[in-house]
Amino acid sequence: MLAKSFKRFVIAPLLLTLASCATAPEDKVSLLNQVQSRGELRCGISGTLPGFSYLDDGSYTGLDVDICRAVAAATVGDADKVDYTQLTAAQRFTALSSGEIDLLSRNTTQTLSRDSAGGNGLTFAPVIFYDGQGILVRRDRGVTTLEGLANQTVCVGSGTTTERNLNDVMQTRGIPYEALKFEQAPDRDQAYLNGSCAAVTADRSALSSSRSVFPSPDDHVILEESLSKEPLAPATVDGDDTWADAVRWVVYGLMEAEERGITQDNVADYVASATSGEQEENAALRRFLGIEGDLGTKLGLPNDFVVQAVEAVGNYGEIYGRHLGPDTRTAIPRGLNESHVNGGLHYAPPFN
């Protein structure tokens, strides 16, 4: 009788306790809380691509950089509170998974392998640049198709989707070639300029960026055909939904602001008008600006987080125009990167 009682009143509860401990989720502080407590966002960038992230007069500038700045403005209240880390393609995922950086904003293609738990374990924010892989050649070579590169050497970045895509396409089309691989884009481009390879392949945006700083940009041409789809998006580490949600909706806020015509110059006027009651009938706008409702609170952010982001960097269209518009040296037509109201692919879900 004593043995049975011991099993019932001692062993059974002990097993139940052990089982509950084994299945209980770990208490985990979100990166959002850590970033806010630290008062600074740690952002991983390339730092070598004009128009996207580039060191100019001692400061980083570009589309990817302004995404970092917008997130910092929305999360810690100051777009300048960003600690930038330059990363190669090979370093970027380790830097994110190890906690060296909070956010990866470095022309990174969203793929199934990178998004899955069995791959790189990333959580992607909305795509900020729809791209495709291209080929850059010297104009005087007269090459117009991939077949014109048969038995030639092509410079490519190692540890990138472009390396695999190039091999897949060349193999499928039966075009023999040799790949010359580089970790750093500047080294890749210099090898191309020195004549070590007949062509260089990368995202078309990256090729436009690289060409913009060549000694004679007009001597080089990007072939018409595209080798792949390359949706470029910022990324956070997998498993932290609170942080991922905050980053995601900051990016969507920049897109929604463009659609609504809210800019860096007029956002204060929109807020004043909505606060005074002039926009009282427009409840959706008042929620978007954080004047009523608790959309920001639901994310762990100030309710006016979109206003803070737009005041710091402008809406998505302004960011694009500033770094990639027709008056810039990189100058990439928006195309698919237009707002959906202008025939592009950028589309923010409802803020409600």
From TrEMBL:
<dbReference type="Pfam" id="PF00497">
    <property type="entry name" value="SBP_bac_3"/>
</dbReference>
<protein>
    <submittedName>
        <fullName>Amino acid ABC transporter substrate-binding protein</fullName>
    </submittedName>
</protein>
<comment type="similarity">
    <text>Belongs to the bacterial solute-binding protein 3 family.</text>
</comment>
<feature type="signal peptide">
    <location>
        <begin position="1"/>
        <end position="24"/>
    </location>
</feature>
<dbReference type="InterPro" id="IPR001638">
    <property type="entry name" value="Solute-binding_3/MltF_N"/>
</dbReference>
<keyword id="KW-0732">Signal</keyword>
<dbReference type="InterPro" id="IPR051455">
    <property type="entry name" value="Bact_solute-bind_prot3"/>
</dbReference>
<keyword id="KW-0813">Transport</keyword>
<feature type="domain" description="Solute-binding protein family 3/N-terminal">
    <location>
        <begin position="40"/>
        <end position="269"/>
    </location>
</feature>
<dbReference type="GO" id="GO:0006865">
    <property type="term" value="P:amino acid transport"/>
</dbReference>
